[in-house]
Amino acid sequence: MSKKEQTAISPTRFENYPEWYQQVVKASEMAEISPVRGCMIIKPWGYGLWESLQRQIDDMFKATGVKNAYFPLFIPISFLEKEAEHVEGFAKECAVVTHHKLEKGEDGRLVPAGKLSEPLIVRPTSETIIGDAFSRWIKSHRDLPMLINQWANVVRWEMRTRVFLRTSEFLWQEGHTVHASKQEAIDRTCMMLNVYKRVAEELLAIPVITGDKSEAEKFPGAETTMCIEAMMQDKKALQAGTSHFLGQNFAKASGIRFQSAEEKEELAWTTSWGVSTRLIGGLIMTHGDDNGVILPPRVATAHVVLLPILKKPEENEAVMTYTEELARQLRNILYHGTPLRVEVDARNIGGTRNWEWIKKGIPVRVEIGPKDIASNAVFMSRRDLDRKQSRSVTKETFLSDIIGILDDIQKNLFERALAFRESNTHDFDDMSSFDAFFTPVNKEQPEIHGGFARAHWCGGSDCETTIKNRLNVTIRCIPFDGKEEAGSCIECSKPSKKRVVFAKAY
RNA sequence: CGGGACGUGGCUCAGCCUGGUAGAGCACAGCGUUCGGGACGCUGGGGUCGCAGGUUCAAAUCCUGCCGUCCCGACCA
Question: What ipTM is given for this predicted complex?
Answer without folding.
Answer: 0.82
